[in-house]
């Protein structure tokens, strides 16, 4: 069974289906295959975490979904199927600068970014920035949009929303700004919210509140979330499903419990072992993953993880197949080929 | 208004290598054409800490707590506003057994620089992109009191490079040719060049990939063991600090909230802020659902800190006294200090292990 | 303190020696060169600038006539035609000229010149002609091209005193280019130094220097030049006047560079590698020279290159107005000054050709400067 079929057969109510996504960049030094064959499903009303380190391609994946990469220098192939009710559109067939995509962006699929300090425009009020999204995608009048903005600010936990709606970003702290970003992201009741490292730049005691908020809102609005993060603690607490990426490919995908408690791919296993967990292994040496991530111009032939894997695989020079370890849990590794029945 | 430390780690006083006493660092806020000072950012506000030889002491806290500023005061990058930073070198420096870094004379400053070195957070900006590795690693020797020949420097530099796990063929390369982890190794090699006693590490792995962090920490630990280094480890990552530190100093808004050995701190929390901080760390195990304490409000600005106990605006247990009176950092259990009026009465939740 | 005191056991097994694949990475210099080559205008600029500099270096070699040599009999000769095809229609590989016969137009009483096609005078290369001193030391009389003696060979015509315009333009290039290059060099050195001090020390020092810069910039350029150039005593020998002019320009143009450098220094001042150098005990001068300025170098080069055409124009303007350089010094501005009357424009238009040279030089340096900037800093730091 091909990876596409495996993913297609997953019994979830699919919202977004990514098939064989390849995003390559043409640079003077050569072609960078940032995303090279990603297959992923984001079900309805589910949080999917995209986990990976630098060079994994997780950010590029999210930007490919949002149509934020100019082509050239990017070259994007594959399918990103967005299932809207009865219809399905392939986002990659749409013109990224066109009206149809603009209709979807911000309205049905929205995105929040990592650094709240720089993602808000300093010369417009918070209210203005929320209203901008609302006015663009709905027929509400300015006054109605403002009411909705105040409502949203209240929902994301900002005190005195009626007064604060007219304030400027610099009058808000980092955590508050991220809440505002979430308000903007949810303003039009999107079906999918993409969050790119939403809590990385925020203090940990503030992060608690933001994560709680995101979970509550997801419950209430029934929004799906694609969360990109390198913080496995956050992922464990927030995600329903996890996709682990390495060097442009998804190497493992499954339920959050399966990924954390029975990881299959050597990279996933090593990653989980290499991070510190509060209260565990105090004073002990870290178990590290040998070596470094290969540079994008020197991607190993065959299995991309071979340069750092502890297992000796005879077939490592060939591209490993995606194996279904159990329904809903897949991994791209030669080790499990024989086990497959 | 000096806050005197009672009950020091008395039996091991002779092992103290750095003693910070009532340290303050205020940054003036100036307004207007004539740059009048209207207020101060109280980055470090009356901090006292003792660091023993060979220890790893971690400074933890969130934005505005002053941990970075404190590190820089120890490095004499900043001139402190008040207080002492007493350094007790292994061997007397020009006959002096104790040097106050906060108030040091020029002639001793050069010597001091050889003994206390720093590793910065972002290796891409702490190494000059226009210099190759040999030049970067040779720099410390230019300002050393002893005169080095080119060959001596070259030998030592190659040795340092190997000690941090890199090949000597890398000497001709430039920083942009390396990954973050490798660069940080080079930064560590640079810090070790003149065989210092103490290393101040300011978020040394925060800018690195998660799986590389462990590599660098292992390296730092090994070097500490082999060279007898003392680390002042500044970090916001509590899980990391729990793994490697001997003692943890929890800071908030320029003040010390709690000090204890790592295991003691985690299993016997005495300060409400520490309780909230530790409960906020998301645990990488989906089956453990923590009871998270969500603090009300935001972190106040250090230019306008709350009166009394600086934490009272967000503390779930705050009472009237907390708004008025500044709590004194006191030892409640052997080696465990807290700055809270009600620490003995509070029964704070333990970490779910 | 030797290696023995640093007792790290050579047990490499416990250390994760990082395996690194050799990566082909473009160095900064290669990147700059590649980007520059792709930019056509930049390459054109480089070619033009090289030509101009070569011309000024080899001025005596290239001038068919002595620029000072006047022959009133040949005054106001129009540019001579260079032929490849002769009267009979034959093509000759070697270009040639005809002797000019002076005549008079019977109707207008104007002087006319007719070519005497009886004899061809081929242009020879590497001929001997008037003699000159190389570097003031030894005499030479080699010239790149010329014709037999006695035959007039004025490719660009002559001026009022019969002096060959081409030769004067070539010699003029020396002066104009020298002023521009020397002036730019002084500007760069002075501007960088002051800018670096201003940026590094900040505070009061910075404030004072910035106010001084503003005061200098306040003055309208032209009147200031005029005042300063009049202040140069007329009795001074030409070289001294030249130096004086260069100093005046440098004095007025260092301000922009200083500001740029200050900005760069301010931004690099607080980077961590500067901080790291401080913690290693490096003195301020070392930090500025070794750490900060090399990072500002690209900007300095760019501004320096842009200053050069500015100075060319400034000198030309000043000399054109009759201030600045005086005869017998020749610069393009002086040449243009000679051409600044109605008679010239209507009857002897070739005397305005020096303006063309100014144009080409300025364009060349501008293209070069722009190209350098785009190659070094494509994203506009």
Can you tell me about this structure?
The complex is a heterotrimer of chains A (341), B (353) and C (381). Chain A has 341 residues and is α/β, with parallel strands linked by helices. Chain A has helices at residues 3-8, 58-66, 99-104, 126-137, 142-155, 161-164, 174-186, 204-221, 232-238, 256-261, 266-274, and strands at 14-27, 30-43, 47-51, 74-84, 87-90, 109-112, 192-196, 224-229, 241-246, 249-255, 322-326, 329-332. Chain A has a domain at 3-97 and 226-336: Rossmann fold (3-Layer(aba) Sandwich), CATH 3.40.50. In chain A, a hairpin with a 2-residue loop joins strand 4 (74-84) and strand 5 (87-90). The mean pLDDT of chain A is 87. Chain B is an alpha/beta fold and 353 residues long. Chain B is built from 11 helices and 12 strands. Chain B is globular. The model of chain B is unreliable at 1-11 (pLDDT under 50). Chain C has 2 domains: 43-57 and 167-376, MetI-like (MetI-like fold, Orthogonal Bundle), CATH 1.10.3720.10; 79-158, no CATH class. Chain C has helices spanning 28-38, 40-57, 59-62, 165-201, 203-218, 221-230, 238-269, 272-279, 284-320, 332-338, 342-347, 353-376; strands spanning 83-85, 91-104, 111-122, 124-134, 138-146. The radius of gyration of chain C is 28 Å and the shape is elongated. Chains in contact: A-B, A-C, B-C. The interface between B and C is large, with 50 and 34 residues.
Taken in chain order, the helices and strands of chain C follow as HHHEEEEEHHHHHHHHH
Architecture of the largest domain in chain C, according to CATH?
Orthogonal Bundle
Q: State the strand order across the main sheet of chain A.
A: 6-7-8-3-9-10-12-11
Assembly of the depicted chains: heterotrimer
CATH superfamily annotation of the largest domain in chain C: MetI-like
Q: Count up the helices of chain C.
A: 12
Class of the largest domain in chain C in CATH? Mainly Alpha
- % residues in beta strands of chain C: 5-15%
Unreliably modeled segments of chain C = 1-24
Helical content band of chain A: 25-40%
Strand arrangement, major sheet of chain C? 1-2-3
